[in-house]
Automatic annotation (TrEMBL):
Name by which UniProt lists this protein: Bacterial surface antigen (D15) domain-containing protein
Alphabetical list of InterPro entries matching this protein: Bac_surfAg_D15, D15-like
A Pfam family it matches: Omp85
The species this protein was found in: Rhizopus oryzae (Mucormycosis agent)
Single GO cellular component term: mitochondrial outer membrane
Lineage: Eukaryota, Fungi, Fungi incertae sedis, Mucoromycota, Mucoromycotina
Topological type in the membrane: Multi-pass membrane protein
Length: 427
């Protein structure tokens, strides 16, 4: 806020808003702005006025349709215990277009998108995103989204998406998927929630070297599902955090009302904690777990869990932990993984974006859940240790580690050698 003329007034002192004016808007509807600002007139004390004015500023910022927001609060000398508020807003351009290169899950992607913000003057938006990579050969999504009742922290939308993915790093097949659905997103002090209903049609095409397990799943699969995602992230950096924690929860219910040919309940957890130790050194711990329970029909190979790889349990091939059919990973219905990392600056090279790294990883996966699943997961754990370097860039984190698998089974594919990984989310 540009002015706080009553900053020395006690918080409980009586105060109300006499007038509120909005200047500088052309494309934004007055009714939309009224829905964002009308509650300031309910304030009756200095503390309440300041809280509601800050709430208005937060809402305007979150809508992402204004380039500049200035709020002026002045005392009204004609009316005792009252103030006048003026909002000076500068609207952003409606059109948005961007391209960038991202690295995630051991693949490089070219991402881009275009959109129109504030399309009807009430914070609505329409946008499309596209990406091309070595794993995700092509993907695109179109979304129409609007805030509910003008609230920037609750948005509803409809979407349609399509993708072509190459799974040959783990299994010998390609997948083409098309989805349509509705989505609700919400933000609070605890984190971000997202819930959606989607209809997805997947077409699995087995490659020439595919195993009988993959070939048996070839063809079209229709899925009706509801999924929920919760994310809380207070890390000080996404790529190489030294402080804070991350919690991600994902649930999916597929096969609603016997629709489609896939039915299951899926849960997954991803959590990490990061703690600075001394200057230039930090310690990170992480944990992941997942459970897939049949509701009716067998889940497809694209819905199962896979474990192992440079972003997962290091020292193993991607998807290299667990049962296999020939060269293909069978995947699993339950898994867990945990890791601990010590990251330190290199003496004399602290000015460079490179760190020394030592780690210990563990995890296990079972192909089928039974009454003895917990014992299986704990008794068949795989472990690995190693050391190397982390190179951090604005678009990705790159690791070069020498890995030493300590415990593994005969069906696993350990890699006791240098292993390279690049992406965003490492164990």
């Amino acid at each position: 806020m540009s002015n706080e003329p009553f900053s020395d007034i006690p918080p409980e002192a009586p105060l109300r808003v006499n007038t509120l004016r909005v200047l500088g808007t052309n494309a934004t509807r007055h009714s939309f702005l009224d829905s964002l600002t009308s509650h300031v007139f309910q304030a009756s004390t200095t503390e309440e006025v300041m809280a509601k004015v800050k709430s208005v500023a937060s809402q305007l910022q979150k809508h992402d349709i204004f380039e500049d927001i200035k709020i002026f609060v002045d005392t009204d000398h004609a009316t005792p215990d009252s103030v006048n508020i003026v909002l000076h807003l500068k609207e952003k351009e409606k059109g948005v277009f961007e391209t960038k290169i991202n690295m995630g899950d051991n693949q490089a992607e070219l991402n881009g998108g275009w959109g129109i913000r504030n399309i009807f003057g009430g914070g609505e938006s329409v946008y499309t995103n596209f990406s091309f990579g070595n794993y995700t050969r092509a993907a695109a999504e179109g979304v129409i989204e609007t805030p509910l009742a003008g609230n920037a922290y609750v948005k509803a939308g409809i979407f349609a998406s399509g993708s072509i993915r190459d799974h040959s790093q783990i299994n010998a097949f390609k997948e083409t998927a098309k989805s349509v659905g509705v989505r609700l997103k919400g933000w609070s002090q605890f984190g971000e929630h997202q819930i959606a209903y989607a209809i997805t049609d997947k077409d699995i095409v087995a490659l020439q070297k595919a195993s009988s397990t993959v070939r048996a799943q070839s063809g079209s699969h229709l899925k009706h599902s509801i999924y929920h995602k919760f994310v809380r992230d207070d890390r000080n950096d996404i790529l190489l955090p030294t402080k804070g924690h991350y919690i991600g929860l994902f649930q999916e219910l597929a096969g609603l009302s016997s629709q489609g040919d896939v039915g299951y309940i899926k849960h997954e957890l991803n959590a990490s904690h990061h703690q600075p130790l001394v200057e230039g050194m930090s310690f990170s711990t992480s944990a992941r777990a997942g459970l897939l329970t049949h509701v009716s029909k067998e889940p497809s190979i694209t819905d199962r869990f896979y474990l192992g790889g440079p972003l997962s349990v290091r020292g193993f091939k991607m998807g290299g932990i667990g049962e296999r059919d020939g060269n293909d990973a069978v995947g699993g219905e339950a898994y867990w993984a945990a890791g601990a990392s010590l990251i330190a600056a290199i003496p004399g090279l602290s000015h460079l974006p490179v760190k020394a790294h030592a780690f210990a990883n563990a995890g296990s996966i079972v192909a089928k859940t039974t009454d003895n699943t917990i014992n299986e997961l704990t008794q068949t754990s795989r472990t690995s240790v190693g050391f190397g370097f982390i190179f951090h860039h604005s678009i990705a984190r790159i690791e070069a580690n020498y890995c030493i698998p300590l415990r593994y089974s005969t069906s696993d594919l350990p890699q006791p050698k240098f292993q390279f990984g690049f992406g965003l989310n490492f164990l």
